[in-house]
Specification:
This protein is of the alpha/beta class. The chain contains twelve helices and 17 strands. It has two domains: 4-215, DHBP synthase, CATH 3.90.870.10; 245-351, 3-Layer(aba) Sandwich (Rossmann fold), CATH 3.40.50. Helix content is 32%, strand content 20%. The longest helix is centred in the last third of the chain and has 17 residues, at 253-269. It is globular and about 60 Å long. The mean pLDDT is 95. Bound molecules: adenosine monophosphate and magnesium ion.
Length: 352
């Protein structure tokens, strides 16, 4: 398949820019597009055959449901039933934005989109290209991250091109995804709101709007029981994984740097290609391997935005071993550590 690649500037968006992409979606095709979280791979969510193409292109397990993207809050009522007041409270504060809400689904949402579940995940994205594309297409857009299943999510069009060129109809290059981590997922289909995936909208931010919110215990664990089943089916799969073996070092910063230097030297001396994920504050202190800076510890958002790109850069370099510092496990840091732990297959070394 020939994949059409177009460049669109979100600040100078013209209605005609997205006409071809919207038509492809209407006709059951696949279009990758930027959102403020990561790039999404879109298809008509109410068309089972179109949704199935997403699973084929990504190699995604069929029990892993898709998030349905809408362009107006009122679209909620078309897709979901028994919508609690809390859903509207959250939508009014955080939409458009990086929050996905799980609700009981209406019959029009096919099982092929929800992985057979009786619930549906819904998000109204903020990126103007995403939002205009959904509105222009006239369909609801199922869109998981536009990467091959298991790989780090794409935050730049070049990541999507690497994974999807030749497999989908179109890629819209709209520059870098500003946040760089997937949306926070909150389940409002039961009696208590539960966070199923941490993201840029934190527990505290949610609790400020709707009161008590729980967190799926499986995602809190640094050492998960392999038998434990997370409530978001996708969270059980290995994710965000670079090709090299990633290990997280945790502890006092000076000790972590010493331990990483020692390990990186050892591997480098034995002829291995080694990468180190450092921060602005520490990068000068690493002496072995390829040292890349993820962002500044003073600006956690820069670390979130840089995480997947750095993992992909190490893939390009065929790095065999990657060592990284760990980050504070609260607020946005909680989402960063959740992704980092998955990428590392929960390989963590505590330095004392
Ligand atoms: P992605 O779009 O690649 O970021 O993945 C979507 C995530 O949302 C996966 O972890 C899914 O398991 C989760 N998800 C989607 N729909 C539901 C649902 N109805 N119930 C629980 N989790 C869901
Ligand atoms: Mg994904």
């Amino acid at each position: 398949m020939n994949t059409l690649i177009i460049k669109v500037d979100e600040l100078m968006l013209k209605p005609q820019d997205l006409m071809v992409a919207a038509k492809i979606l209407r006709e059951g095709g696949l279009v990758a597009f930027p959102t403020e979280t990561v790039y999404g791979l879109g298809a008509n969510a109410l068309d089972t055959l179109a949704a199935r193409k997403i699973y084929e292109a990504k190699g995604r397990p069929s029990d892993n449901p898709l998030i349905v993207h809408i362009s107006e809050i009122s679209d909620l009522e078309v897709l979901a039933r028994e919508i609690p007041e809390k859903a509207y409270q959250l939508a009014n504060v955080f939409w458009p934005g990086p929050l996905t809400i799980i609700l009981k689904k209406k019959d029009c949402v096919p099982n092929g989109t929800t992985g057979g579940l009786d619930t549906v995940a819904i998000r109204l994205p903020a990126n103007p290209i995403a939002r205009n594309l959904i509105a222009e297409s006239g369909v609801y857009v199922a869109a998981p991250s536009a990467n091959i299943s298991g790989k780090p999510s794409p935050t730049k069009a070049e990541h999507v091109i690497k994974d999807m060129n030749g497999k989908i109809d179109m890629i819209i290059d709209g520059g870098m995804a500003t946040l760089g981590l997937e949306s926070t997922i909150i389940d409002l289909s039961g009696s208590t709101p539960v966070i199923l995936r941490p993201g840029c909208i934190t527990k505290v931010m949610l609790e400020n709007v709707i009161g008590k919110v729980e967190v799926d215990p499986v995602i809190l664990s640094k050492n998960p029981d392999p038998q434990a089943v997370p409530k978001a089916p996708g969270m059980k799969y290995r994710h965000y994984a670079p090709e090299g073996k990633l290990t997280i070092y945790e502890g006092d910063t000076t000790l972590v740097i010493d331990a990483i230097n020692q390990k990186a030297k050892e591997k480098q001396d034995s002829g291995k290609c080694v990468g180190v994920i450092a921060t602005d504050e520490t990068s000068d202190l690493y002496r072995f391997g390829i040292v890349k800076t993820i962002g500044s510890r003073k600006d956690e958002a820069s670390i979130a935005a840089g995480l997947y790109a750095i993992l992909r850069e190490f893939d390009e370099l065929h790095t065999e071993y990657i060592y990284t510092e760990s980050f504070a496990d609260h607020s946005l840091g909680h989402a960063i550590m959740n992704r980092l732990l998955k990428a590392a297959g929960y390989r963590i070394v505590k330095v004392v």
